[in-house]
Amino acid sequence: MADGASHRQRRSIRLPHYDYGDAGTYFITLCVQNRRCLFGQVVDRSMVLNELGRIVATEWRRTAEIRPNVAVDEFVVIPNHFHALLAMERSRRGVSHTPSEKFHSPAHTLGAIVRGFKGITTKSINELQGTRGAMLWQRNYYEHVVRNDHELQRIREYIANNPLQWALDRQNPETGVYQYAPTDGIEEIFGGMRP
Q1: Domains of the chain (ranges, CATH numbers)
Q2: Average pLDDT of 93-97?
């Protein structure tokens, strides 16, 4: 329509006035488009990655190599989603003028890191599967700014235990989208919701 009334406005889920380039620790969750289980399977409460899942894990580890201001912490690849903690230092933004044989990303915000990660994993997986241009990830992602050491420890435990909880996970299509996840208290950190 000419007046734009047919276009829905997406509501931002980011904190208003927060600089996502600031130093800090962040928890993120990315979900596969349409919740397709692409990255492997949980067997005996352990995640067994397939080739696509190994691409996701490898590219996440590379994040710290191409972004010197980032350290990857605990992460887990689950059949249809991905949880990770990363720590960012405040850094000078812009392209480095120092000649280097390694690629270094010029962008240093959380959004740029997620965008780059989604881009390279999508490209690599689409090349492998011969599905050029196919969507891999949902458009948005969940993020949480970790506020203290107690939260950091609780989130690390949540990530480490995620495969153990797969049978009860609401993202697990075998148990149903409306399946309630276990009550482990993680909702307290995330404002009453599970990531």
Answers
A1: 24-96+103-175 (3.30.70.1290)
A2: 43
